[in-house]
Amino acid sequence: PNLLEEIILNFPEIHFHIYGAPYKEELKKKYDRLKKIKNVTLYGAYNSFAQINKEEVFCFLYTSESDGLPNVLLEAAAEGIPIISSSVGGIRSFLNDKNSWLVPTNDISDFTFAIRNAFNNKEESLKKAEQAQLLVMERHSKENFIQSVKNIYKIEST
Fold this sequence. Notes:
The protein is of the alpha/beta class. Helices cover 44% and strands 12% of the residues. It contains 6 helices and 5 strands. Strand 3, helix 3 and strand 4 form a beta-alpha-beta unit. The longest helix has 19 residues, at 122-140. The termini are far apart.
């Protein structure tokens, strides 16, 4: 959230569709500031990525300063949405340069560079999204989870 307003102001030619709602008072103030920016539409809370009109978005932007492997990245990838993400914590265990636009630091110039690349190379962004989607299906499917549990607890398949 700290970078989002700065990123938006760097791209007056791009319309930002923001999903989610603030859950802390300090975030509500930032959210209220975003309401005043012309190239922003705020949609509020949502239940799943299936609700997001993928025709309106060209990427999912994730600007965390620290994290493990957040479910929200897996969910965006599962829906085939191209991802631009910071490269912190466990994110690299899923995302790489072949399946996303990774940002090496949480510096505004790095995010600006990645967003411009993604926006100007839509075909490449879609290819990256397809690779991420395939990886989600391969690693994080229900079947794979069940098999992992069976392997851990040495349960024989029937």
